[in-house]
Amino acid sequence: MSESLKEKRSDPIIYTQLECIEGPLVALLASLSGIGFGEAVQIVDRAGNVRHGRVALLDDKRVTIEVFQGTAGLAMGGERTRFLGRPITLNLDVSIIGRRLNGMGEPIDGGPPLAGEAREISGTVINPTARSYPDEFIQTGITGIDVMNALVRGQKLPIFSSSGLPHDRLAIQIAQQAKIRPDLSAAVGTGTSSEQELVVVFAAIGVKHDVAVRFSEEISGRTVSFLNLADDPVMERLLTPRMALTAAEYLAFDLGLHVLVILTDMTVYGEALREVATARGDVPSRKGYPGYLYSDLASIYERAGQIKGKKGSITQLPILTMPNNDITHPIADLTGYITEGQIVLSRDLSRQGLYPPLELLPSLSRLMGDGVGEGLTYADHMPLMEQLYAAYARAEEVRMMTRIVGEEDLSEIDRCYLRFAQLLEQRFLAQGFSEDRSIEQSLEMGWRCLGSLPAKELTRLSQDEIEQHRSMWEGADDVKAFTQEEDTGRE
Amino acid sequence: MSARIARISGSVVTCDHAELFAMGERAAVGHVGLVGEVIRLTAEYCYIQVYEDTTNLQAGEPVAPTQTPLMVELGPGLLTTIYDGIQRPLDVLREQSGAFILRGAEAKALSRDRQWLFEPLQEVGADLSGGALLGQVQETSAIVHKILVPPLVCGHLLKIANKGEYRLHEPIALVRKDNGQEQELYLYHHWPVRQKRPVNKRLTPDIPLITGQRIIDTLFPLAKGGTAAMPGGFGTGKTVTQHNLAKWCDADVIVYIGCGERGNEMTGVLSDFPKLADPRTGHPLIERTVMIANTSNMPVSAREASIYTGITIAEYFRDQGLDVALMADSTSRWAEALREISGRLEEMPAEEGFPAYLPTRTAEFYERAGKVQTLAGDSGSVTSIGAISPPGGDFSEPVTLHTQRFVRAYWVLDKALANARFFPAIHPLESYSEYGAELVSWWMQMSTHWQRDREELFNLLMEADELKGIVRIMGEDGLSDHQRRVLLAERVTKEGFLRQSAFNANDRYASPKKQAYLLQVIMQQVRALLGDTGTIEDARERFQLDGLIRLKDEIASDDADGILKWQDAP
Ligand SMILES: Nc1ncnc2c1ncn2[C@@H]1O[C@H](COP(=O)(O)OP(=O)(O)O)[C@@H](O)[C@H]1O
Ligand SMILES: [Mg+2]
Predict the structure, then answer these.
(1) Is ipTM > 0.90 here?
(2) Does residue A269 surpass a pLDDT of 90?
């Protein structure tokens, strides 16, 4: 019956009296029937401007609405409120590709209004039995990612960064270089290269103007942008990622395209959520964020993946800046609990001029184990990654010790580890902004780094694996040169 | 006279005519009949937590009582099935509505179409009480499902079906109860999820639950019927460990609850388990598994319920005399669901916004684990293992602290170990198990060295930890040769024994024999190393330490005897 009721309500209901205005919320005093929880609302203020909102609380005496453009300038009388009889939606058809929209999904590129079917932006849950497990390796061309924390199609892999670090640069490079290598794996569907090409859906959430410009200029090809900039209404930020993901789901699961969604900056999103929660009087948990922050973030991040029987996929690359570099900050923390790993950027490495400044130890790709290895990339991929990680972790311990006891007292082995770490950072991790390395090149660089350690240290590798790759580091000129350079440098 | 929705706040809906409802009753909310449960009653209003998304619900829509509490269906068909938090079968929902879950979807937990071959094991005329055996059904190749008289029913058996194929709604027995009433019994029955199922008595858990994970079985063991919790920040290996336990532990039945975690992880279980064989029986693992998936983006009240749905199913299999292991990943998400609902009820929060009844609820959940004598006199057990996701990796938060009080094995997952890709990242000095002492005699049958080896391993780990503190301040130069040997020995035991990769086919499961032999051989070499007087530089070669470290990856459990060959090494 509620369905039919909505159909009948072709005329939106209009009321004129606001009872109360507080923060981003307004309340109407009225016993309204036929209004749904979460329903989309438009408020026309006295100047005739339309603001968008949503029913946030509903009881038999009043309706509370959260207004996405804020309540500044709204007065108690004279406003018209329209209930649209449906939740917030986005119109979708194939013409969305190439469009530039604001954070609410309205065109800002001078083009026509969006056409097509209206989809609810809050999305519906993918049935876990309908998901298809992501296992197709994406070559990003970035060694520190491909070898150490591989990205797979349909994964949600955020970048944990801090202000001033080159996360935008990195995200753009990934978007430009990411490709599937059908030649590596029999498992990857043979599509034409244009079918394999990525469509990028870009959502700017409260970022600065120049960041948004940079993304739109540098990501060529098929793109849809949703831009909520720093000076745009705060409340709209709650909608922007959902708009973007609704578009992405349409592109992936209706049109069968492979979609890469970049969401930046999720910290700003979280702050907007906190602002609304505080206004609503929700009980705060950590750092004033509402207790439902986890569920709310999950309702965004879980909209990634692949579905059985459907051709497309959604890979998510959210970016967040950790206030104060603090990985335990609620937004970074809960994101890490929801997403399938994280790429952490390091201020220290960045200060040393190293790009991309990947902080390997806390970085992780949870789906890597299923997306690389024999028949997917190479059989030696996982063992190499594990050995590099183990050695690098040991090297970091030695570095820590060196800071206290100095280098003089180090054992020969410990010195080897220091050299290894240098090599790994300077040769393996460091690369150019547009340097696109194949996975073969990247793996080889990894093996060469191990050449700086005595073979008996490499206990994460089997004897066979060591023998098979010994030639790689024994003949490796750059390693020798590098090692000598280091030795003379110290003397 | 019927109740109408007065207020909607997220997952909590309030309606009038409170006198129509009882606490804990299941209610049908709105025209679409969303499933809800009554959680508070006042003179005027009835508060209902709704197990589905409330978007589009309108004030004034009807709310109907159902006269029953939130129940699950218990009978053949549970195994191999994946349910949501309120026991709706997800594969059936998918057949109905496709890849996305629609609101108001309805499906019976157990198929009414499927036929089961029932074999009666009672004669007409028997006097039966609750929990008594009626007959059995071979549910999957791995499990014989015993059909029992429901716990609160007892009476005189008037009829019992002959051996044959029956569907769930076809009666298989008729009893006359003590009050003279007759009642038909079926292959299945209902049970309220929040009520624990009765048993004869509780027994002491004294048999290990072998998990195939060395650091757990050898250092911090779990008993069948025991409780364990595993706190760890994100990425420290909670889920992989839970999956490992679900795959390799020697329980008869596994109940795996994905509580507020990732959809893909449940998909992973669904795709892996049919392909993997149970190391004891050879049957595909899926045949002994029931899955409950209420992922992070599914409605939060159903997440709260998912834990109870799971434990009730676990108790039901326990009542058949089986050993059941239940994994809940993650109980923090369950506690957060409690907090969210409590907030919507505007209850007074205690710590960090959690309601004051958090410790009570946590205790109630873990109390439902245990080794018991069933109503039929058999022994059965439920082992509960909960993952905890402390915010910011801070173990002093309420969920971690309260859980620690109610479990007897506590596996602390360490961020630094995980960062170094040392898995399982269970911290060998901060974790503990109170079951160790009770299980010694079982292990001594495996290897007479076991107790001594294990103690020496613990001592070595502790001694090395102290030395590392010194090294951090003074460098290795401050150490004597013997102390350096201790550090080397510790590295060998960590890399060679404690480390165990979930990705290594030879080592992801280690049989008790492999564990005991490996421990024996490694500790023997360690003793020799520590007693050595040669230079430390060539000790590695002389004691073949690299080979010792690789032993675990090279020798699978089937060839465990091969490990003992190392005993004769120099
Ligand atoms: N026993 C293990 N063996 C190998 N790798 C592991 C093991 N446990 C965890 N890992 C690695 O750590 C990652 C994170 O583990 P996971 O269980 O998902 O963490 P959590 O659930 O605590 O967030 C996995 O993706 C895997 O790469
Ligand atoms: Mg997990």
Answers:
(1) yes
(2) yes
